[in-house]
Design goal:
CATH architecture of the largest domain: Sandwich
Largest sheet: 5 strands, mixed
Number of helices: 1
Order of helices and strands: HEEEEEEEEEEEEEEEEEEEEEEEEEEE
CATH class of the largest domain: Mainly Beta
Strand order of the largest sheet: 2-9-8-4-6
Oligomer: single chain
Shape: elongated
CATH topology of the largest domain: Immunoglobulin-like
Radius of gyration: 39 Å
Helix content: 10-25%
Structural class: mainly beta
Length: 309
């Protein structure tokens, strides 16, 4: 009797637990079933649209619990939660690529209802591709090729530098565009960011960079450290030896000395012209300064003197 009694007790306990669990599950399902929660399931937008609204019809609390936008990083969603009817605002940049962009939003209610919303932004009407997005050159002159694959008109913007030249700045369809750089006469690297735009409204835009290294070492020397003039004045020269671009200057408040040229590339010669010096008893002097290089500047000075009568 004792064992039979214990068996009845355990059987009754198991039955009560089972009924309790079923009641709990049914309550949760019942609550979720009683919730009103409707969201647009799919939204599609054009490549130039940057803001959209997704309407939510609900009588409960809701939350955006997941945003799968791995190929659409500039997509933002706001707000991320609410109660009752609401509007999700989606913002992004224009789609200038030749690929559609897709994201999936997951919205959930407090009691477990879930809905997914698929967002798509269509691709640009212009199909534009280039062979590479960066070109690097040494300090010497050189040429590389930009390969453009396009199904419509295209244009390159930003090539307004004096050291960089493109074989063509616009075209229609596929093309091979030579990129040519001049020799660099400085020790600093130089860069250019260029854009290539396709389509009548520039609805597909790609960018690429051109970089040229500077010279590893700029050299500079002069054949004189001083030049002396008599009171009669006259002309003298200073020879410049350099592998780079250089500039020459005298102080701006000095009017009795002039120089030409004031800049050059490589080896050159500077002519110093000195005015006559009359009615004075004291010697006068100034300094000619020649400079080269911008990353590690080189400087050489020439002291210029003129005796009085």
């Amino acid at each position: 009797m004792n064992k039979l009694y214990q068996f009845k007790i355990w059987t009754l306990a198991a039955l009560v637990f089972s009924l309790s669990a079923c009641s709990s599950d049914e309550d949760a399902s019942s609550k979720a079933a009683n919730e009103l929660f409707n969201v647009e399931r799919a939204v599609a937008f054009g490549p130039t649209e940057t803001s959209w609204e997704v309407k939510i019809v609900a009588d409960c609390e809701w939350e955006v619990t997941a945003v799968d936008n791995s190929n659409w990083p500039d997509l933002s969603v706001s707000p991320r939660s609410g109660e009752g009817n609401g509007v999700l605002v989606l913002t992004t940049e224009e789609n200038h690529s030749s690929q559609d962009r897709t994201a999936v939003l997951t919205l959930s209610t407090k009691n477990g209802l879930k809905q997914n919303v698929t967002i798509q932004q269509t691709r640009s009407g212009a199909d534009l591709r280039i062979n590479q997005d960066s070109f690097e050159f040494s300090d010497v002159a050189g040429t590389q090729t930009l390969t453009v694959n396009c199904n419509t008109d295209w244009e390159i913007l930003g090539a307004d530098t004096n050291w960089l030249k493109l074989g063509q700045l616009s075209g229609n369809g596929n093309a091979e565009v030579p990129i040519t750089v001049n020799e660099s006469f400085d020790d600093a690297d130089r860069y250019a960011l260029l854009l290539i735009s396709a389509g009548n409204l520039g609805d597909n835009i790609l960018s690429f960079t051109v970089k040229q290294k500077g010279k590893q070492l700029i050299t500079l020397s002069l054949d004189a450290v001083e030049q002396n003039f008599t009171a009669a004045g006259g002309k003298k020269t200073v020879k410049v030896s350099s592998n780079g671009a250089w500039s020459a200057a005298i102080p701006t408040d000095i009017s009795w000395i002039s120089i030409t040229p004031t800049s050059g590339i490589g080896n050159g010669e500077i002519t110093i012209t000195c005015d006559p010096y009359t009615g004075a008893t004291l010697e006068r002097l100034t300094t000619l300064t020649v400079s080269a290089g911008s990353k590690n500047p080189q400087r050489k000075d020439v002291i210029i003197t003129q005796t009085a009568n």
